[in-house]
Design goal:
Length: 690
Amino acid sequence: MDLAFLNATFLFGALGAAVPLILHLVRRQRAGVQVFSMVRFLMASQRAVVRQQKLRRLLLLLLRMAACTLLAVIFARPFIRDQGESLFAGTQPEAVAILIDTSYSMGYGNRLALARRRAAEVLDGLQTGDRVALLTFAAQARVVRELGPDHSVLTALLDTQVEPTFEGTDYVEALRAADDQLSGADFDRRTLYLVSDFQQSGWNPRSAGWRLSPGVQFRMIDVWEDQDDNTAVTGVEIPAALTAEDRTRDVVVRIRNYGQTPFQDELTLQVNGRAAASRRIDIPPRTGHVETFSHSFESDMNSGVVLFGEDGLPVDNRFYFTVDAPAPLRVLCVEERIRPDSPSEAAYYLSQALSLRQDPPVSVDVRSAGALPEIDPAGYDVVVSANLSALPRAAKDRLTGYVRSGGSLIIGLNPAVSPRILNSSFGELLPGRIESVSTPDAPRDRYRLLTDVNYQHPVFQPFSGPRHGDFGTVRFYGTARLEPDSSASVPGRFDDGSAALAEKPLGNGRTLLFLSTFDLSWNDFPIREVFVPFLYECIDYLASRGSMYERAARAYSLTGEAVRLPAEASRVTLPSGEQVPVEQSRTEAKLFTRTRQPGLYQVQTGGSPRTFAINLDTRESDFARLDPEAFASAVVNPVAKSPESRETESLAQHARDTEVERRQRLWWFFGFTLIALVLGETLLANRTHR
């Protein structure tokens, strides 16, 4: 039992008890000594009276001081706080989040079964009234069950919902999701249990900065096993695309032994379901190996798989790829004509330059801006605005949806361009705002040069070597000055520092703005030798076809990545055999996102079916361990309680104390005692000599 006060500030009023003491000391009188003869009996009687009066005055002083003190205590609202409440606080309800790693490394050995068992032990230790949330995570977190009081169903969920995935690990994103679950609970006790094998690949110390909420306790449950030997096929590369004349290509296979012991087994290459080659490979511990197969592919579309032995984690011993002859690139060129029966010069130069391309061939459709609302741009790899001075509203909406869903747009200027009209009609398709236009002078004796080029950008990278093209020979008589927005980049600039080429990501796609014209009205670019390869590089870059000198169809994608499907795709068959219909759309490119499983995916189209390959992110195959102490210190919040939590706890404690004080009403008893003290002081004061 403990005496507490609801308004402890009033206890300072108890200092008023010093007032009677001060008055008593100040007003005390000292009697003088007078000598009389024959007064011996009188002196003895007087001493008895004085002693009696002193005792009464001392008692009176104590009564007055007690009355002042008791008055302050009454205003402080006393109550008895049961110490049992403090003992009970140690077993008050708790909010618990159990976060279980389901990345594919957890499929090694007995790790996932051990994780389920350790999570079940945590559940067994919970008390009635505790709230629990169950989450699994790999690259992203998944809430299996929201925070709730029912524990009975969680054991069954551990067996049915906790399964290994084909994804890597991201600890920070998983901890964020679990912390969000705990933040929704108003409990003082909050604990997060992380069950994992704690691989270094799932956490980057340099990207740290986020921490758990204040007051959240962090418990790490390690299910790593001493045996960590693992070998994985980490990549397959096809250096060049197939052509009609040459079908023989090198298949470069990359393998790595992540274990501490040598590994030896058969490396097998299968193409189109048939074994093509096999070799015995011996890899020392903690090293990589590159093996090259030369194979003649018979058809335009081929699929393959590389298999390398068996170990404790067989899922990363297979690697899938495709080798296809590049399909023709489809380019839509939108122009603005001066006369209906005569094409514009910009569209003419563009179509003539692109039609020269044979590897792969380029198909160019030239249309007017007025016809754009009736055309589905999703059927084209790239759309080029050759010389539009304005974009109709319907055409703008169609192009914006196309770019946002993964399409690409190249914009060239019209010689009669108005910055105000162009900015308004193109809107967010532009990588900035055009401030002004510098039209060419009549004699053309003043011009700008393209001198500041970022050769690290994919469009300009093939021109970085000697004798690979010189942009400094191109003369620009007319240009536009652009104020790039925050999301834009400028890979090329004129000699006065203004932007010559600006790029902007928009949704899943991008736009590329050329700050001059594609005809001879503002420059001599179309008659220079770099014009045609520059166009090819822009088209290849925007169509995600790679460099002109390293052009090849992408052999594979990674789990979780979106894959762009042909416009005529109707359904996709997963490696498991499940068929997934593709949603039809007239305005957006088709992106397939259900790529959570490695293997070969069959795409059903109106013609021959196509195949794309999905593989694991093999960084997860490396079992290198993170430092548990560094990891815990990086994510645990050193602040025990947030200011909001402390304020909430203080308000809750005050509410509990108010209720206890209201029930006890101890101030009544102290009030009666005060009345008794006042009455006693009055009676005693009347009987005390002054």
